[in-house]
Amino acid sequence: MIDIRVPLGTLLACLGLLLAGYGAASDPALYQRSLGININLIWGLTLLVCGAVLFWFGRRARPR
Amino acid sequence: MQPTTIDWLIMGVYFAFVLGVGFVLRRNVRTSSDYFLSGRAIPAWVAGLAFLSANLGAQEVIGMAASGAKYGMATSHFYWVGAIPAMVFLGVFMMPFYYGSRARSVPEYLKLRFDEKTRALNAISFAVMTVFSSGISMYAIGLLLNLLLGWDFSTSVWLSAAIVLLYILLGGLTSAIYNEVLQFFLIVFGFAPLVFLGLHDLGGWRGLSARLAEVASRRGFAADAWSSIWREMGHASANPLGVEWFGVLMGLGFVLSFGYWCTDFLVIQRAMAAHSMSAARRTPLIAAVPKMLFPFLVIVPGMIAIAATVGGGASGFSLPAKADGSLNHDLSIPMMLAHYFPHGMLGLGLTALLASFMSGMAGNVTAFNTVWTYDIYQAYIRRDAPDHHYLRMGRVATVAGILLSVAAAYVANRFNNIMDLLQLLFAFVNAPLFATFLLGMFWRRATGHGAFAGLLAGTCAAALHHGLSLPRGSPPGVKGGWLHVAHTYPSEMAQNFWTAIWAFIVCFAVTLLVSALTRARPEQELRGLVYALTPRENEAGTAWYLRPAWLGTAVIAAVLLLNFLFW
After folding, report:
1. What ipTM does this complex have?
2. Do B6 and A43 count as a contact with CB atoms less than 8 A apart?
3. Of the residues B83, B132, B438, B549, which has the maximum number of CB atoms within 10 A of its CB?
4. From the CA atom positions of chain B, what is the Rg in Å?
């Protein structure tokens, strides 16, 4: 059975990349509704890091 | 706010993974045990998160936020009183019998411990209940997608049904469990920024409390009624729940919560899928840790929504009104998503919401197909077929379960009252259950006739109590008082709690009495099924943090601390 952390980490990292990329490229006026905070960029990077960590643990645990 | 390309992209990526997991896990399904019990191979933390997520359906997310707006922080009683103690009890005391008896389902445990008729009663009522719950989940998706995305009811219902069907058909319980883990992370990552932005908007916790004091005083309560959890519980009329501390502790904390968390196969199935006894016992204890923090994720948004609506926030968030002019508390989370999240995060928030809808549905469907196949089909229709026959039956039951749920969703859409009535009936059936399990596991003299009579009597007591009492201000009928109004409760919640308390007491007493009058089973048949006749697990050499008793103590200490912090 695959280790759940591999697909989970990949999913979070993909979503993180999408969000962070969009956050970096989008018009700052968009962030008026989120109280001036570029939540896409910040949260996208958070997701990316969490996803990468989970993926790494999942891969490392595999050859058991 | 309508989603744009980036939002759709995020939702699309998530659904691609959901189905992808199903396809990858397809290879692992060879026997019926793989399909219904994940081959008992799931690690404790995965089972724990699935245990938590299976319960975290849409009604839970939307409903808890709505209660946060309606009742304030005291809603956390549903977690800190109404879930954690029961989860600890399940892990420390009850799981050895569920897992150790090798029963494949909760009804099957009842058959091993008591007799065939007790199992049949539980299996059939449970199967009917899961189909309708999953239908109600679908109905809620239909309404919400209609509101948020403008999709019509049928499109939403059939699309979500198709996705859930596909991934369960492919990977069985493992697929449902893996998706529940994905969903757990999505809910946390989707809602945490919402709470952060909402609090930021109101000037932090202090700003929130100040506005909640205004909410409370406008409704004629003491200023801390929305921000404290125990201070206003001395009398039912002093808090918005309309319940006093005894009702909360006894009705919610004991009868209802133990009745749900310790006997409902929907959640227990996740723990039964764990790879060892120790992992199965740790499953609810691991689940308890995030569970006790969930009020901050699902209840606080509702509190923010009502505080911003009544007290005014910097960004001008306000809850919409219903047709009758009252505030629509159910829309707390959806409206906050639309208000605070820019495109991008909006996609993530909607994905989290959709994920919770689907896992609620999937949890019901996986519990249904197992109970149908093992406890109804194998028990009463075809007893001695080869294993692959039951595996195929499980897949057929999955399709049938989903089709029945779709039908139930349409019924709910057409006749709202029928659904209220059905949920009421389920409440009557569930209310006495814990008394049966408690006596079954901890009193060797309890007999099958006793359990069966107790369950029936408890259900009748629940119905009778409901028929004789009424929440203040409701007309007699579906809300109660359909026989005679002998007692008026300050709120519907108080009535629910007391219905459960009476059902429990009657079931307990009748089971005791009838058991005493009927012949007990020989003790050697009860080994592994009853506490006094089961050898304790040898825990020598196990690290303390892997021992259920220690873990459970730590969890209880943490939850007590939370109660004091928000006292």
Report:
1. 0.94
2. no
3. B83
4. 23
- 3 state SS for B287-353: HHHHHHHHHHHHHHHHHHHHHHHHHCCCCCCCCCECCCCCECHHHHHHHHHHHHCCCCHHHHHHHHH
Helices B116-149/B416-430 angle, 10° precision: 140
Mean pLDDT of all residues belonging to chain B: 89
Task: Answer whether B434's CB lies under 8 Å from B503's CB.
Answer: no
* Contact (Cβ atoms closer than 8 angstroms) between residue B99 and residue B280: yes
CA distance B182 to chain A (A): 6
Give the pLDDT confidence score for residue B168 in this predicted structure.
Answer: 92
Q: Do A11 and B174 count as a contact with CB atoms less than 8 A apart?
A: no
- Residue A63 in this model has a pLDDT that exceeds 80: no
Cβ proximity of B28 and B34 under 8 Å = yes
| pLDDT per residue as tens digits for the range B70-104 | 898 999 999 999 999 999 999 999 998 899 888 99
Q: What is the Cα–Cα distance from B135 to B153, expressed in whole angstroms?
A: 13
**Residue A64 pLDDT exceeds 50:** no
Tokens of B304: 């923010």
What tokens were used for B342?
């820019």
Burial grade of B83 (CB within 10 A; 0-12, 13-18, 19 or more): buried
pLDDT at residue A62, rounded to an integer: 57
Whether B130 contacts chain A with CB within 8 A: no
Quick: pLDDT tens for B355-389: 888 888 889 999 999 999 999 999 899 888 898 99
- What is the percent of chain B where pLDDT is above 90? 48
| Residue A9 · residue A51 · CB < 8 Å | yes
**Partner-chain contact A18 B339, CB within 8 Å:** no
User: Between B265-272 and B277-294, two packed helices, what is the crossing angle to 10 degrees?
Assistant: 130
- Checking if the pLDDT of B460 tops 80, the result is yes
Q: Is the pLDDT of residue B268 over 90?
A: yes
Residue B212, token pair as written in the block: 């909640």
Write out pLDDT tens, residues B144-191.
888 888 888 898 899 889 999 999 999 889 999 999 999 999 999 999
Structure tokens at B401: 């379960």
Q: Say which DSSP state B248 is in.
A: I
Cα dihedral B548, B550, B556, B559 sign: negative
Taking CB atoms and an 8 Å cutoff, what residues of chain A touch B344? Answer: 18-19, 22-23, 26, 39-40, 44
Q: Does B10 touch chain A (CB under 8 A)?
A: yes
Cross-chain residue pair A18–B344, CB shorter than 8 Å: yes
Please report, for residues B208, B304, B535, the alpha-carbon distance to residue B200 in angstroms, rounded to integers and kept in the order given: 10, 10, 54
H helix runs in B4-43, sequence order: 5-25, 32-37
Mean pLDDT (whole number) for B454-460: 93
Report the pLDDT value the prediction gives residue B50, as an integer from 0 to 100.
93
Smallest CA–CA separation between B177 and chain A, in Å? Answer: 10
pLDDT at residue A17 in the model? 94
* Closest residue in B to A28 (Cα–Cα): B342
Q: How many CB pairs under 8 A join A and B?
A: 85
Q: Which residue of B has its CA nearest to A10?
A: B17
Phi first, then psi: what are they for B198, rounded to 5°?
A: -60, -45
Instruction: Say whether pLDDT at B13 is over 90.
Output: yes
Can you read off the two tokens belonging to residue B379? 């028990």
Of B10, B41, B181, nearest to A15 by CB-CB distance is B10
User: Pick from A7, A19, A33: which is nearest to B340 by CB?
Assistant: A33
Residue B147 pLDDT: 82
